[in-house]
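Person: Show me a sequence?

Helper:
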Amino acid sequence: MRTVQHLTRRIAAGLAIVLILASGAAALEVGQKAPDFTLTGADGKPVKLGDLLGKGPVVIYTFIQSFTGT
């Protein structure tokens, strides 16, 4: 029983931390420019948004519920 209570407390604390940290992030409005960022491409090399913008328009699409089972 103590293990379940301990696990429940840890999960609640983790969720609280995530909510606190996520509340500071500001969402972009439609049409607003995204800040420059770098991600790792499929080939393992870094891909910078600024470099892609030099080649033409870029569309950023997010799969919010991808692979969540919902």
Strands lie at 38-40, 46-48. The mean pLDDT is 76. The CA atoms of residues 25 and 35 lie 13 Å apart. Helices lie at 2-23, 49-53.
